[in-house]
Amino acid sequence: NAGVTQTPKFQVLKTGQSMTLQCAQDMNHNSMYWYRQDPGMGLRLIYYSASEGTTDKGEVPNGYNVSRLNKREFSLRLESAAPSQTSVYFCASSESSQYQPQHFGDGTRLSIL
Amino acid sequence: RKEVEQDPGPFNVPEGATVAFNCTYSNSASQSFFWYRQDCRKEPKLLMSVYSSGNEDGRFTAQLNRASQYISLLIRDSKLSDSATYLCVVIPTGGFKTIFGAGTRLFVKA
User: Which residues contact B49 (CB under 8 A, 6 or more apart)?
Assistant: First the structure.
């Protein structure tokens, strides 16, 4: 009963390096989301995909790109990592209709030196 | 002003106590409301949805006051296992741009 699976769990990068965070869900959900969580800030939405084939910006999209590869998978890419992107990243998914609660993966802890 | 505001706490309560958290939101067009629970270094997990009529799940009761734009969570008979951060979540009109509060820390002590 996997739910939402994120890889990797931990990553350390140097400034300027690129990487892709992977997310997959097995609940047949239409909508998927990427968040970052910083101390005292709560979760902030980076990008979301309401359905396969669509992506939209959230509150803090700068410095990130996303790809909705298929219904199951939604990846987040950092093209040129910066120390300000050090954070915990969570992927989530929700059922097809709007206003539904989201189910989260267990996060990726990313440090950028 | 933040779109969703919560008292960060921490709330320190003894086992068996009743504790209440409030959360205010600024967008009057908000449509859906939830409480999530997050344990240290873990992912947020849905605790319960919040409806205008109020709803209860065991020891937990959630209320929504649209006129005053706040939601509340009441925990009765607190257990040690209730120690966590409680996140208030609001989904405005549009349906996807979910807004999380920064969370309220709860410590339940024996």
Answer: A101, B32, B33, B34, B55, B62
B3 to chain A, any CB pair closer than 8 A? The answer is no
Helix/strand/coil for B31: coil
Check A40 against B101: CB less than 8 A apart.
no
Give Rg (Cα) of chain B. Answer: 13
Partner-chain contact A42 B44, CB within 8 Å: no
Residues of chain A found within 8 Å of residue B98, distances taken between Cβ atoms: 33, 45, 102
Q: What is the mean pLDDT of residues B33-49?
A: 94
Local confidence band at A1 (pLDDT 50, 70, 90 cut-offs): low
Cis amide leading into A83 (omega within 30): no
